[in-house]
Input
Amino acid sequence: MKPSKAVILAQGHRASSAPGPRPFARGEMSPPLLPVANRSLLEHALVWLEAAGLREVAVLAPEGFSTRASAAVPRVGWRFDLTWLERSSDTGVGESLASLSDFLAGEPFVLHMADCLSRAGLDSLMGDDAAGDRETILFVRETADHGGGVVDLRARRQFSPFSDHCAPAGVAVLGAGVAEAAADVDPSPGHELEHLADYLQRGGGRVRTRRVADWWRLDYGADALLEGNRFALEGIRADYREATMYETTVQGAVVAHRTAVLESSVVRGPAIIGPGARLSHAYVGPYTSIGRDALVEGAEVEHSIVFPGARIQHLSSRLEASVVGAGARVFREFRLPRALRVTVGDGAEVSVA
Output
């Protein structure tokens, strides 16, 4: 039976899978709300599920999440019924899924972690396959190094649903009865699917894996977020005709919102310029996302993510492979004495050439 329902499990911060990661976007912004190509990962997940023709989607998240998510997912008028559900901090993930019995009504469903992107649709990935009762189909992706990002279930038992060099891709299809059977699972953020598969197999359930390609999943670090931004931007089509432009050159696949202003600038795609953003005497290079109401003035930016409301002004060298947080300022001062002056928070990273 083809699933017609989905549950998005919007979790908090993920644990790192590698030592010494570059941090990103701490504080109030959880991974599903992080922007990739000017769209939150949560909105990317909703768009992907909509394209699959699902009828009902529930977003299950910690308390207070839906208020923040409403700003990250401004779109309305989805072609499915969207329900926001919150769980208390002392309620485990498994117990929360089991509590959705009325919503699931004994049907198979898609479980999406809202931390991944796919170029292929759900229908093409599943074909005519379906998850049977108490069965889970787990999408897995290849990892670059041995065991990268994988909880080694083989160390705890003889059999594992994971092959070498594979890790969960962030999406699974769960058959009828799986949510109730997993009521006691309470994994740490970032390892939900590994622990779910382990628990189900130990309880006699069946777990099958399906390898996917052209897929990206978030890891902990600025480099991972930049890679996701590149992945998303590679699929865009040029759309900038309604933006306000003065003496500006646009090359390649560039998307600029109709309220964006581009003045005496060069933009080379793939790149995206958000609502209310302003470029003035600037260069924006490939794989760059400029967020809502951001300003780039007298500066060059390439292969970077500029969050909403950030300001980059009058830099003496190009800003590359960078993530500039919401409301942050990166600028060059001309007053004396000349010096490097920074105000950075916990875990921040500043590289000076």
Observations:
- The radius of gyration is 22 Å.
- Residues 233 and 270 are 6 Å apart (CA to CA).
- The longest helix spans residues 222-233.
